[in-house]
């Protein structure tokens, strides 16, 4: 049984190269321990002796499931409901009304690294609340596209069912009551009205978005931090091209535009910022 905790410089570098190529993840040079702990279970399950052997198999393209498992193990899927709250308040208090005033008939919002789905479902709840409080509002259909690199998290997101611990993170009791139903003593599932606005599909941010069409808002939060500055700039340039005129980009609260600064105007929305396509 494999219990590899030390890697040669070459095998570690080859693994880093694989991850950079497959997912854009820029793994630090001092991350041997992280790799050892995260791939340990996979090495044991697949009876693979060394990291070098694993890298060889997943780079050959013959073991797509194993390749996905390794990427999943190395990405961080941390997420929760209404994360940082200010982007959702901005949608609720300003942006949805602005879209209506501008006469946008069917707004499109993209959650570009949606993880287990808390982000697109939070957006959909905000839209639902907006529709409910704007009585007399004629139809205001909105489409949300939720994408992620990992098919494992996407499958879970599409189910829309969460355990007690997950629903406790950022979801107010009133929203839990209004927008979920309990399917077992420890499971809450998102109601159909909230679910129906969202379509889920796999999308690697390093690959073309042309087929996805254009959006009025893009949430690309807490994922750019994993990319090299070259990949980050390239992704931000292509996200910019995926926005409609006056469309907005929302990044994670610790992320910034860096070299793509001139493509967007910054709107201060305390305690954070929203970027508007120039
Ligand atoms: C930390 S989660 C962020 C979830 C959510 N956006 C939030 O802010 O709460 C990062 C997500 O990015 C996804 N990811 C990592 N690399 C990616 C890539 N190259 N393309 C698309 N998604 C990627 C991971 O699978 C993970 O679900």
Layout: helices, strands, pairs:
Layout: H1 9-23, H2 32-45, H3 51-60, H4 64-74, H5 86-101, E1 108-111, H6 118-133, E2 143-148, H7 151-159, E3 161-163, H8 164-167, H9 173-179, E4 180-184, E5 187-190, H10 192-195, E6 198-202, E7 215-220, H11 229-241, E8 243-251, E9 264-269, E10 272-277
Parallel strand pairs: 1-2, 1-7, 2-6, 7-8
Antiparallel strand pairs: 3-5, 4-5, 8-10, 9-10
Helix pairs in contact: 1-3, 2-4, 5-6
Bound molecules: S-adenosylmethionine.
S-adenosylmethionine binds next to loops.
> How would you name the CATH homologous superfamily of the largest domain?
Vaccinia Virus protein VP39
- Arithmetic mean of pLDDT: 94
Number of domain units: 2
- Low-confidence runs: none
Oligomer: single chain
CATH fold naming of the largest domain: Rossmann fold
Estimate the strand proportion: 15-25%
CATH class category label of the largest domain:
Alpha Beta
Structural class: alpha/beta
Helix share, percent: 40-55%
Strands, count: 10
Order of helices and strands: HHHHHEHEHEHHEEHEEHEEE
Shape: globular
Give me the Rg, rounded.
20 Å
In DSSP terms, counting alpha (H) and pi (I) runs of 4 or more, how many helices? Answer: 11
Q: What small-molecule ligands were found?
A: S-adenosylmethionine
Description:
By secondary structure, the chain is α/β, with parallel strands linked by helices. It is 43% helix and 19% strand. The protein is built from eleven helices and ten strands. A seven-stranded mixed beta sheet has the order 6-2-1-7-8-10-9. Strand 9 and strand 10 (272-277) form a beta hairpin. Helix 1 (9-23) packs parallel to helix 3 (51-60) and helix 5 packs across helix 6 (118-133). The longest helix is centred in the middle third of the chain and has 16 residues, at 86-101. The chain is globular, with a radius of gyration of 20 Å. The site of S-adenosylmethionine has 23 residues, from loops.
């Amino acid at each position: 049984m494999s219990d590899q905790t030390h890697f040669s410089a070459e095998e570690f570098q080859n693994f880093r190269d694989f991850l950079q190529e497959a997912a854009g993840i820029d793994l630090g040079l001092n991350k041997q321990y992280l790799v050892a702990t995260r791939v340990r279970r996979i090495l044991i399950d697949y009876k693979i002796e060394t990291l070098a052997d694993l890298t060889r198999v997943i780079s050959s393209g013959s073991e797509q499931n194993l390749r996905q498992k390794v990427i999943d193990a190395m990405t961080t899927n941390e997420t929760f409901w209404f994360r940082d709250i200010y982007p959702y308040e901005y949608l609720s208090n300003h942006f949805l009304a602005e879209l209506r005033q501008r006469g946008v008939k069917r707004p499109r919002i993209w959650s570009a690294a949606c993880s287990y789905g808390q982000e697109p479902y939070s957006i959909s709840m905000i839209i639902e609340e907006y529709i409910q409080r704007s009585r007399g509002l004629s139809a205001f259909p909105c489409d949300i596209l939720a994408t992620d690199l990992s098919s494992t998290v996407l499958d879970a997101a599409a189910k829309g069912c969460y355990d007690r611990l997950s629903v406790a993170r950022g979801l107010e009791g009133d929203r839990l009551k209004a927008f979920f139903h309990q399917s077992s003593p420890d499971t809450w599932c998102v109601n159909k009205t909230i679910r129906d606005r969202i379509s889920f599909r796999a999308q690697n941010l390093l690959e073309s978005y042309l087929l996805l069409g254009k959006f009025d808002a893009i949430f690309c939060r807490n994922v750019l931090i994993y990319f090299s500055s070259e990949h980050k700039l390239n992704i931000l340039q292509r996200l910019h091209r995926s926005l409609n005129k006056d469309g907005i980009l929302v990044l994670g609260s610790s992320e910034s535009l860096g070299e793509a600064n001139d493509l967007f105007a910054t709107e201060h929305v305390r305690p954070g910022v929203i970027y508007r396509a120039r």
